[in-house]
Write the structure tokens for this entry.
Amino acid sequence: MDGLKNAMPQATFENWSVGASPGIQFSAYLYKDFSFFDYVFFDSVPNDEVFARKTLKSGERFFSEDYFNGIIGDIMSLIATQTNLVVVAIPRRDEYGPYSNTLLERKKASGQVGAHFVNFGDKIEEICRIKNLDIESCYEDHPAHPLRMISFDIGHELGQAITKGEIEKTSCNIINKNEYLVYESKDWELFPKDCRKNSVMEEVFSLVKDGQHIEFPEGRCIGYFVNVKNTYCSVSLEDVRGNSVFKTGLYYSKSVDGLQKMFIAIPNGLRGSRLVCGHDVNTDSIGTKSGRYNSMEDDIILSISSVCVMKE
């Protein structure tokens, strides 16, 4: 981002980034008008590589390739029909030689929708050859973060190419087969609201307590956004008959301030019509390694801002 901004000082940027979340989170934004923007940069490969290896307690894969790549394809094609799409792929440090299937599928999808594809991996390997470096030395401690100077240089080069008109305009006429519906905090009038902001965004969350639930028309639940700075509970996705379909442990933290938005994905878009806040350690999945249950805590809270559902 810094390199882009430096190369395009007259441009304005909006950052919709949400960390530690898979790329299918952006299905929650498909109602927006992307023609407002001259370019949209889509970058989720590092987190998607993690989810490609993620399994449930049963040993099953969290996402099937068809399900995941189908949603990513819908996101990319819808954006590409409205404006110029640049797809950025930053391979994780531990995904080199050969590149992951996630990255290769993203490159393939980029070609299908006519998007410009930027592979950081190729650029980093070129730097390694020129400067006689190894891959490890080109990354920060975090395996998904190349050195800032490398990211800056690649972003700057891309920005200059856009400014000079060297990036081919996106042309796509693919029509999505799936429809994505989003239900937001304003739709759940019964729950108190908590407005939080950080340097990137401002968001309104509904505060759901132990035993309470939010409802939405039944469909394939892609996932939901929470504030992990104020979420400490388990969440059960239930169907219209009240049967628990999938349960996630989200024992993060409770704080009167701070915002760290995260998308909690539902494996393969299981069908459901409500999310129930509870206190159950026997869950199908843990949202993150930090999501460990502490039996000494008893103040259960879910801070949720929106739910994305695929309409069938």
About this structure: The mean pLDDT is 93. Residues 65-82 form the longest helix (18 residues). Helices lie at 2-7, 45-53, 65-82, 101-113, 120-131, 148-163. The chain is about 25% helix and 30% strand.
